[in-house]
Known about the structure:
Layout: H1 2-18, H2 23-37
Amino acid sequence: MSVMGLGIKGGATVRFTLEGESEEADAEKLAATLQEIGLV
């Protein structure tokens, strides 16, 4: 589960960055994603 979570975190960060969104938006979306998969 931890390895999968790390993969999701890395993938989400890269994806948000490629979309050209702000760092704040990245953090908000990443936090929401982590909460959804239960890592937070």
